[in-house]
Amino acid sequence: MRRATSLANLDLNLLVILRELLRERNVTRAARQVGITQPAASAALARLRRHFGDELLERTRGGFVLTPLGAHLATQIETVCAGVERLFSTDAAFRPEDSEREFVVLVPDYVLAALGESLSRAMHEAAPRTRLHVKVVHESMPADLAEALRVIDGIVSVPMPRFQVAGIRGMEVFRDRWVCVVAADNPVGDRLELADLERLPWVVPHHPDGEYPPTSPLAPLFARLSARPRVAVRVDSYQATPYFVAGTDRVAVMQRRLALRLADRPDLRVLECPGDPPPIVETLWWHAKNDEDEAHTWFRSMVARAAEDGDGRHRPR
């Protein structure tokens, strides 16, 4: 059994490199984040391994992975470091006008188009020295959402069962609805029917190579079709969708906010979507450790303000 370690015998500088090693799972990147050399980071990792009697990071063919103890420490390190930083802060109060904090948020490219400019303007007006790191979802959300939210400030996504776990909080930021986009000279009328969606070739963003997953936001609409749509174009971007509809007989089902922004051109038409698909509810998700953090509370208010500026709606959950 390991004996309790006296705080006086600890090198608290190791907390910083430990946090980055657990975040990055890469010695070189962790060294870059802390601002030390790679050999210094390797030496710190060796000291941490001796202290914990564990490898913490194990090399695999695909890179480094956390050991079980490393994964356990990763669930605690953010809270510990945040507490230490608050304890030693000369001014515990968060002042947006003076802050240089970086906020990190993960969003689909659709949300980036719908919310990004408004959020940028709101933050620049209220806190011009803060920084914003926007990560765009390219294929799918992180496998472990709770772990991901420990190291970033938020994820904007429609509700999914994987978000409904202890430790994750959510706030609805805006609602949208599905519409259809067709070429201006497409012979369909001004009102589409389900039969049109069954007949026309589709342009679909983020479509897997196979059946559309039942967890898709459009799954209820697909369930109402008597025939599986023929997918003519798969593209890994919501914002690119209109480019593959123009000048063709194809149809795309898109978010109204994005369609009005990107498909407002004479060679495209935006039509109501048949089948009464459910509304789109975009939600900001964050980790419970940030509930009382003044800076994070301010950031959530900026997201809500940006949604209002974009004619969105927000409701605490």
From TrEMBL:
Belongs to the LysR transcriptional regulatory family. It holds the Pfam family HTH_1. GO terms for molecular function: DNA binding; DNA-binding transcription factor activity. Residues 10-67 form the HTH lysR-type domain. This is LysR family transcriptional regulator. SUPFAM superfamilies: Periplasmic binding protein-like II (SSF53850), Winged helix' DNA-binding domain (SSF46785). CDD domains: PBP2_Nitroaromatics_like. Keywords: DNA-binding, Transcription, Transcription regulation.
